[in-house]
Amino acid sequence: MSEQKDLIIYQLESGALELKADFSTETVWASQKDISLIYGKDQSVISRHIRNIFKDGEVDEKSNMQKMHIANSDKPVVYYSLDIVLAVGYRVSSSKAIMFRKWATQILKQHITQGYTINQVRVEKDPNFLVEVMSRIQNLAQKQINNDDILELIKTFSYTWFSLQSYDEQKFPKTDTTSDIDVSIKDLYQDLQQLKADLINKKEASPLFAQEKSKGNLESIVNNVFQNVFGQELYPSVEEKSAHLLYFVIKNHPFNDGNKRSGAFAFIWLLQKFNYSHKITPETLATLTILIAESQPNDKDKMIGMILLLLAGNRNAI
């Protein structure tokens, strides 16, 4: 297996197959033709399995399909997410399906764990890495960036939205384990809408605030953060889940307006949902939010690693 920009090479018996990777959402995209080559099945068989998967409601159709323009094709080609590719693999039940599932698990875990581990090692062994990050934050602070709305929002979090009494204390984890927590996307939607109403009442937001560009955008992000691969969580810890939720909401732009504020809201919301006693100052989170928004896609690992290190440092300081 080798990686090159947004392509991942999956080795078939007949040769190399290029698959489109999107590590910002931790998935791989494949066409029906690609899937038929992976599993060694006729494309009509793959098509039938996909129809049945959607019919059975096994995988959400809208958030797991997208059309892409490719060379030498007059029409856009439909591509399917890794969730669908794996679902088809379970149905074809072949040795090739088992091989692909193992490969998919390995490549995703490798990217996720190394994405953070590499940054952790760099911080410990390469002082210039931390200097680079701090320099970028300092440059942001010197810019004429209006982040009063974010600062005010985060201050509001501390005093209004996230009293521990707002949640059923019996649902809080007693350890760092997250598997017993039931995070409801409906609760997050409702709290965002209440926040929106309050901000509109204060004339600090428009009706476009937290309004999804397409229905299910936020749910797709939350599902991605909490997804499992073969019974194992991709993001096992509270810190990893919260860090990726913050990043994905800001960078994926699920809303017509207010993505940075909504991302900050969702970040604190999830941390408090897990009873995480954080000591992140409003200024720190505001700067971090803007830094993520201005970062390049290839800086994703740095951004996630920085959030994780920040959260780990705050927890150790408690």
Automatic annotation (TrEMBL):
Residues 183-312 form the Fido domain. GO terms for molecular function: kinase activity. Residues 4-115 form the Bro-N domain. It comes from the Bacteria. PROSITE patterns: BRO_N (PS51750), FIDO (PS51459). Signal peptide: none annotated. InterPro entries: BRO_N_domain, Doc, Fido, Fido-like_dom_sf, Type_II_TA_Toxin, Virulence_RhuM-like. This is Fic/DOC family protein. It comes from Francisella tularensis. The lineage of its organism: Bacteria, Pseudomonadati, Pseudomonadota, Gammaproteobacteria, Thiotrichales.
